[in-house]
Amino acid sequence: MRPDTMGRTALAVLPGLSLCVAVTAAASLVQAAEERLVHHPYVEALVIAILAGIAIRSVWEPGPRWRIGIAFSAKQLLEVAVMLLGASISLSALVASGPALLAGIVATVAIALLASYAIGRLLGLPARMSILIACGNAICGNSAIAAVAPVIGASGDDVASSIAFTAILGVLVVLGLPLLIPLLGTTPTEYGVLAGLTVYAVPQVLAATVPVSLVSTQVGTLVKLVRVLMLGPVVLGLSLLASRLRDEPGVPAGARKKLGFFKLVPWFILGFLVLAAARSLGLVPDAALAPLTRVAGILTVIAMAALGLGVDVRVVARVGARVTLAVTASLAVLLLVSIALVRGLGIA
Prior knowledge:
The protein has helices spanning 3-38, 45-59, 64-85, 92-97, 99-122, 127-140, 142-152, 156-176, 180-184, 188-198, 202-209, 214-229, 231-241, 261-264, 267-280, 286-309, 313-345. It has one domain. It is globular, with a radius of gyration of 20 Å. It is an all-alpha fold and 348 residues long. Helix 3 (64-85) packs parallel to helix 15 (267-280), helix 3 (64-85) packs antiparallel against helix 16 (286-309) and helix 11 runs antiparallel to helix 12 (214-229).
């Protein structure tokens, strides 16, 4: 690309990108205030950003001057963020967890994915939204939804709906999960496994386990990390299957072209796998891990602000009841499967 063309592109992107950064900064300040007041972000900046974007979009529709930067933030920045997440993945966590627990986590994620997708489709939700809800429920909530969205070509409305309702239930799980300790008679280790399998985000795992015990926190964090590792294989698998979503009724046969490898497996997924392999081989220094993770987190929040700014609230409202029911039912399945796993493994 010529320098003058790059300059014009940058100038075109700047207004919308600046708006998304401003929303991200405000969301980060709210999260920081939460951490000072209650020591844990029950509602993360990622969720705050998308809700703030939706609120702005409901009273003001960005014009053409803003849309280019908003679209850039929602797509390109999100893809870079997904790629950078690969640097935080290491196979050592898989080895440390032990074969029985590892197999149980994989089985739980697989069952939750299939069950959640089936529930969404039975409720009449579109395939893409059903996939987003399934991945968010089974793996790691908002982060999984954000990572999967560009792979399957999900719309901003689908992403916003999935994240909004998943976020609400995620907070309820954090608040309600400790109530199961006396009901189920769980040990600290059992509770840690249960929290790691059911709570959506890593900070929320800490919020659910720190008040219980140090053992619960350590076990819950480890199980949650292994569960997050499932995001890589799931995203890769979806990228290979994504072309089937194009084979929908009403699409002309001539438009259903076979795609090459680099279309089926997007560049950022390849980058994700390369960084994950480099991390596992010790080629990514520990000193670089925190900055890379931080940059990925910031870019993800900016992308979520952009998605919120592109959401038509009326579209979300039309599917609200079905999405709420799908997320709730999916979470119930995940909780039941997780309890069965804890009991079945006989963890002390």
